[in-house]
Inverse folding.
Protein backbone atom coordinates (compact mmCIF):
# COMPACT_ATOMS: atom_id res chain seq x y z
CA UNK A 1 0.00 0.00 0.00
CA UNK A 2 1.52 3.25 -1.13
CA UNK A 3 0.82 6.44 0.69
CA UNK A 4 1.30 9.82 -0.83
CA UNK A 5 1.80 12.78 1.39
CA UNK A 6 1.43 16.27 0.06
CA UNK A 7 2.82 19.10 2.09
CA UNK A 8 1.54 22.58 1.42
CA UNK A 9 2.37 25.79 3.06
CA UNK A 10 -0.19 27.41 5.35
CA UNK A 11 -0.31 30.44 3.02
CA UNK A 12 -1.33 28.33 -0.01
CA UNK A 13 -4.03 26.52 1.98
CA UNK A 14 -5.52 29.79 3.26
CA UNK A 15 -5.51 31.30 -0.22
CA UNK A 16 -7.17 28.22 -1.73
CA UNK A 17 -9.77 28.14 1.02
CA UNK A 18 -10.56 31.83 0.50
CA UNK A 19 -10.85 31.35 -3.28
CA UNK A 20 -13.15 28.36 -2.73
CA UNK A 21 -15.41 30.33 -0.38
CA UNK A 22 -15.63 33.25 -2.80
CA UNK A 23 -16.43 30.88 -5.67
CA UNK A 24 -19.19 29.20 -3.61
CA UNK A 25 -20.68 32.58 -2.66
CA UNK A 26 -20.73 33.72 -6.30
CA UNK A 27 -22.41 30.48 -7.38
CA UNK A 28 -25.04 30.75 -4.65
CA UNK A 29 -25.91 34.38 -5.37
CA UNK A 30 -26.00 33.94 -9.14
CA UNK A 31 -28.53 31.12 -8.96
CA UNK A 32 -30.86 32.39 -6.27
CA UNK A 33 -32.96 34.84 -8.29
CA UNK A 34 -31.74 38.11 -6.82
CA UNK A 35 -32.16 41.14 -9.03
CA UNK A 36 -31.19 44.75 -8.74
CA UNK A 37 -33.89 46.87 -7.14
CA UNK A 38 -36.19 48.27 -9.81
CA UNK A 39 -35.22 45.65 -12.39
CA UNK A 40 -37.60 42.82 -11.48
CA UNK A 41 -41.26 42.94 -12.38
CA UNK A 42 -44.23 41.03 -11.08
CA UNK A 43 -46.53 42.66 -13.64
CA UNK A 44 -47.56 40.69 -16.74
CA UNK A 45 -45.87 42.09 -19.86
CA UNK A 46 -49.22 42.71 -21.60
CA UNK A 47 -50.04 45.45 -19.06
CA UNK A 48 -48.81 48.54 -20.91
CA UNK A 49 -51.37 51.28 -20.35
CA UNK A 50 -52.82 52.04 -16.92
CA UNK A 51 -55.17 54.46 -15.22
CA UNK A 52 -54.69 55.73 -11.66
CA UNK A 53 -57.96 56.53 -9.89
CA UNK A 54 -57.95 59.32 -7.34
CA UNK A 55 -57.46 57.77 -3.94
CA UNK A 56 -60.40 57.78 -1.56
CA UNK A 57 -59.81 59.63 1.72
CA UNK A 58 -61.22 58.05 4.88
CA UNK A 59 -59.13 60.23 7.20
CA UNK A 60 -59.75 63.54 8.92
CA UNK A 61 -56.86 65.18 7.04
CA UNK A 62 -58.14 67.15 4.05
CA UNK A 63 -56.43 66.79 0.67
CA UNK A 64 -54.12 63.93 1.69
CA UNK A 65 -55.65 61.75 -1.04
CA UNK A 66 -54.96 64.40 -3.68
CA UNK A 67 -51.34 64.80 -2.65
CA UNK A 68 -50.74 61.03 -2.57
CA UNK A 69 -52.50 60.44 -5.91
CA UNK A 70 -50.34 63.09 -7.59
CA UNK A 71 -47.17 61.62 -6.09
CA UNK A 72 -48.09 58.12 -7.35
CA UNK A 73 -48.79 59.50 -10.84
CA UNK A 74 -45.45 61.33 -10.88
CA UNK A 75 -43.59 58.20 -9.77
CA UNK A 76 -45.26 56.00 -12.39
CA UNK A 77 -44.43 58.50 -15.14
CA UNK A 78 -40.82 58.67 -13.91
CA UNK A 79 -40.44 54.87 -13.95
CA UNK A 80 -41.64 54.67 -17.57
CA UNK A 81 -42.83 51.08 -17.12
CA UNK A 82 -46.39 52.03 -18.13
CA UNK A 83 -48.15 54.62 -20.19
CA UNK A 84 -50.40 56.45 -17.73
CA UNK A 85 -53.77 57.40 -19.22
CA UNK A 86 -55.94 60.32 -18.14
CA UNK A 87 -59.10 58.16 -18.27
CA UNK A 88 -60.01 54.53 -17.66
CA UNK A 89 -61.29 53.82 -21.18
CA UNK A 90 -59.17 51.34 -23.11
CA UNK A 91 -56.47 50.80 -20.48
CA UNK A 92 -55.03 47.42 -19.50
CA UNK A 93 -55.14 47.95 -15.73
CA UNK A 94 -56.31 50.32 -13.01
CA UNK A 95 -54.60 51.33 -9.76
CA UNK A 96 -57.13 52.03 -6.98
CA UNK A 97 -56.68 52.92 -3.36
CA UNK A 98 -58.13 54.23 -0.15
CA UNK A 99 -56.21 56.21 2.47
CA UNK A 100 -57.38 54.52 5.68
CA UNK A 101 -55.34 56.38 8.29
CA UNK A 102 -53.13 59.43 8.44
CA UNK A 103 -51.40 60.16 11.74
CA UNK A 104 -48.83 62.71 12.85
CA UNK A 105 -47.10 61.92 16.14
CA UNK A 106 -44.25 63.58 18.02
CA UNK A 107 -41.22 61.30 18.21
CA UNK A 108 -38.54 63.31 20.05
CA UNK A 109 -38.58 66.41 22.20
CA UNK A 110 -36.12 69.22 22.85
CA UNK A 111 -34.86 70.32 26.28
CA UNK A 112 -37.95 72.54 26.73
CA UNK A 113 -40.28 69.59 26.17
CA UNK A 114 -41.39 70.74 22.73
CA UNK A 115 -41.58 68.20 19.92
CA UNK A 116 -38.72 68.59 17.45
CA UNK A 117 -39.23 65.46 15.36
CA UNK A 118 -42.51 64.01 14.14
CA UNK A 119 -43.57 60.81 12.43
CA UNK A 120 -46.14 60.67 9.66
CA UNK A 121 -47.85 57.28 9.39
CA UNK A 122 -50.08 56.46 6.44
CA UNK A 123 -52.12 53.28 6.00
CA UNK A 124 -53.72 52.63 2.64
CA UNK A 125 -55.66 49.86 0.91
CA UNK A 126 -54.11 49.58 -2.57
CA UNK A 127 -55.21 47.40 -5.52
CA UNK A 128 -53.80 47.02 -9.01
CA UNK A 129 -56.17 45.09 -11.25
CA UNK A 130 -56.84 44.39 -14.87
CA UNK A 131 -59.48 46.51 -16.56
CA UNK A 132 -62.82 44.96 -15.55
CA UNK A 133 -64.69 43.19 -18.33
CA UNK A 134 -67.89 44.87 -19.57
CA UNK A 135 -70.69 44.59 -17.01
CA UNK A 136 -68.32 44.03 -14.07
CA UNK A 137 -66.98 46.39 -11.42
CA UNK A 138 -63.80 44.45 -10.64
CA UNK A 139 -61.08 42.91 -12.76
CA UNK A 140 -58.44 40.28 -11.98
CA UNK A 141 -56.28 41.50 -9.09
CA UNK A 142 -52.62 41.62 -10.10
CA UNK A 143 -51.30 43.13 -6.85
CA UNK A 144 -52.94 44.29 -3.67
CA UNK A 145 -52.10 45.27 -0.13
CA UNK A 146 -55.07 45.95 2.11
CA UNK A 147 -52.86 47.37 4.88
CA UNK A 148 -50.05 49.18 3.09
CA UNK A 149 -48.29 50.98 5.94
CA UNK A 150 -45.77 53.74 5.40
CA UNK A 151 -43.94 55.73 8.07
CA UNK A 152 -41.49 58.60 7.79
CA UNK A 153 -39.97 60.97 10.32
CA UNK A 154 -39.58 64.65 9.66
CA UNK A 155 -37.77 67.20 11.81
CA UNK A 156 -39.21 70.49 12.96
CA UNK A 157 -36.60 73.24 12.81
CA UNK A 158 -35.70 74.81 16.18
CA UNK A 159 -37.83 77.86 16.84
CA UNK A 160 -40.27 76.93 14.07
CA UNK A 161 -43.55 77.32 15.90
CA UNK A 162 -45.64 77.34 12.72
CA UNK A 163 -46.26 73.59 12.97
CA UNK A 164 -49.34 73.47 10.76
CA UNK A 165 -47.63 75.47 8.01
CA UNK A 166 -44.81 72.90 8.05
CA UNK A 167 -47.27 70.00 8.09
CA UNK A 168 -48.34 70.60 4.48
CA UNK A 169 -44.71 70.63 3.36
CA UNK A 170 -44.02 67.45 5.36
CA UNK A 171 -47.04 65.70 3.80
CA UNK A 172 -45.87 66.64 0.31
CA UNK A 173 -42.33 65.39 1.01
CA UNK A 174 -43.65 62.20 2.63
CA UNK A 175 -45.99 61.53 -0.29
CA UNK A 176 -42.99 61.31 -2.64
CA UNK A 177 -41.38 58.58 -0.50
CA UNK A 178 -44.76 56.84 -0.10
CA UNK A 179 -45.17 56.76 -3.89
CA UNK A 180 -41.60 55.52 -4.47
CA UNK A 181 -41.97 52.58 -2.07
CA UNK A 182 -45.53 51.74 -3.11
CA UNK A 183 -44.67 51.67 -6.82
CA UNK A 184 -41.55 49.58 -6.12
CA UNK A 185 -43.66 47.11 -4.13
CA UNK A 186 -46.23 47.03 -6.94
CA UNK A 187 -43.65 46.39 -9.66
CA UNK A 188 -41.62 43.85 -7.72
CA UNK A 189 -44.52 42.06 -6.05
CA UNK A 190 -43.71 42.71 -2.39
Amino acid sequence: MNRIFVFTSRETTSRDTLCGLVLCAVMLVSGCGYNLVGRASNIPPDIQQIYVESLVNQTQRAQVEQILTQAILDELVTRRRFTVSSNATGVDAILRGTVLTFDVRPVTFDSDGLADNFEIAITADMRFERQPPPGSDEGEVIWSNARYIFRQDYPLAPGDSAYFDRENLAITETSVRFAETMVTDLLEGF
User: Anything to note?
Assistant: Residues 39-188 form a domain with the Double Stranded RNA Binding Domain fold (CATH 3.30.160.150). Strands lie at 49-52, 56-57, 83-85, 93-109, 115-130, 141-155. The first strand starts at residue 49 and ends at 52.
